[in-house]
Batch of 2 targets.
Target 1
Amino acid sequence: MIKRRRIGAAAAALGMAALALPVYTAAPAAASSWPIWEVRTTDKWAGYGKFDHDGDRILAADQDVDGRSIVVVWKTDYGRSGTCKNSQGGGVEKVCNYNLSEQGRIQIKACLSNNGSAPYGCGKPSNWVSIGDGTGY
């Protein structure tokens, strides 16, 4: 009887621990205050980028104190493009605000940069995302 209780308690603890693990996705987070599309650099822990259709905001988050910057490279299906660069250091998030056409779509990818160098180490780009409602294609 004691062994069963210990095994049951251990299984319950493992189940709760599994629920606490972070999950990274390229789909919009339904319950987030930032309804976003997230992309990461090739060095998964260096940083990431997010797009929020509500306000046309792009976030560049630097997660590593390594001297590199995080650059979110973006382009629209109607010819606009740009970068949101975070060179403020590890542990810092930078938000860039844009005025984008609600009828267009956007694609973002997170990259690394050294002291203003051209972006490199870019992760997989997001799907094309509706700027108006955040749905993916």
Target 2
Amino acid sequence: MRDAIGISAGVVDIHVVGNVLQIEVPDVADPLVQDEDGRLVVAASGSTMTDDDVRELRLGLQQR
């Protein structure tokens, strides 16, 4: 999955659990940022994925 979307190992771990993408932040020195609603989130990397991007990625991986 990481290879398919160009994410290298490091700050975030991504797991496919059934039909869910689970994103985990391991213990790292980089702090999380707080969004406008007060939730802790992973800082933006500059890359944006739309619903269509995720759908196409999942379909491509299912066809392997």
